[in-house]
Amino acid sequence: MEPQVSSKMKKVLLVINCIILAVGTCGAPLVMRLYFIKGGKRIWLSCWLQTVAWPINFIPLAISYFYRRKSNNNDDNNNNNNNNNTKVILMTPRIFMATIGIGILQGFTNYFYAYGIEKLPVSTSGLLFATQLAFTAFFAFLIVKLKFTSYSVNSVFLLTIGAVILSLRSGGDKPEGEPTKEYILGFIMTVASAALTGLIFPLVELIYKKAQQAITYTLVLEFQTVYCFVATVLSTIGMIINKDFQAISREAKTFELGESRYYVVIVWSAIILQFYFLGTIGVIYSASSLVSGILISVLLPVTEVLAVFLYGENFSAEKGISLALSLWGFASYFYGDYKENKKRENIQSPETEMIDKTCTP
């Protein structure tokens, strides 16, 4: 058995996964958009890159396995059943089947998102994808019976208003030469990806709750590895049908930044996108699906600012207001979470109980 993660360790994991999620959330749309604006045209390839780096997870999984093996050997050095206690795979068949379903949903989400990234500027696609927070809150309420506090409601409201304000300027963002029909379809596809993302987050949280076994970080890594593998298989089928594998070498030769940099962009796209998935699943494990949605939404204006510097997109007053509202919403949620944790600690504190007993006549 793997040692249970303490509450203190969970907080450390939350911070680490928030950093990983920030890198993936901000970097993914920028590097994906770079591929398209510099001559890339393969949507299925872009979809495939979102999860193809799933073998990276074997690194932390291997570390976790050796850690579990060492811990079991230390705890059971007088027991002859050490080998039976150290399992390489923690995932049960029930969780495995649920993970396959999540992987299929993620595969479609990746395609919708890649399509939107090709047709829309980073600012517009980021704006539309930020609506995943509203979808996450709605589905979390229905699926995992999420209880809202005044702080979480305020946070969702502020972040949603920030996205709406950004939309006031999105009409003039249509790329030059982009057919209106394709632009509108890009809108629809991006919203669809946001809706599916908002559904996947609470479903993952539900799987954790209904697992009928201890949810360890190793199990979370196995979960992500399997569902990213399934999503990769789905996009690989799409690439084969669309003959994208044969087109990679031809596309590299016409890439505006050069053939070698084409492959650099491809490789880093895969790595940064895997950071996004690793961070998302880790935050859901360490906190909740709503926290994942809030972090992704609050990072939207950061991506907007980066797009201004990297791609010359305009930073309007609306984007500045949106940034302020997003930071306010972010602070509101975590201040409320801090107060709730303090309240629970005071209730459960043994010292508090002893004081109460001493003061009782």
From TrEMBL:
The keyword Ion transport does not apply. One of its GO terms (cellular component) is membrane. It comes from the Eukaryota. Keywords: Membrane, Transmembrane, Transmembrane helix, Transport. It is a multi-pass membrane protein. One of its GO terms (molecular function) is purine nucleobase transmembrane transporter activity. It is found in: Membrane. Pfam families: PUNUT. The chain crosses the membrane at residues 12-37, 43-67, 88-113, 125-144, 151-171, 183-207, 219-241, 261-278, 290-311, 317-336. SUPFAM superfamilies: Multidrug resistance efflux transporter EmrE (SSF103481). The keyword tRNA-binding does not apply. Belongs to the purine permeases (TC 2.A.7.14) family. This is Probable purine permease.
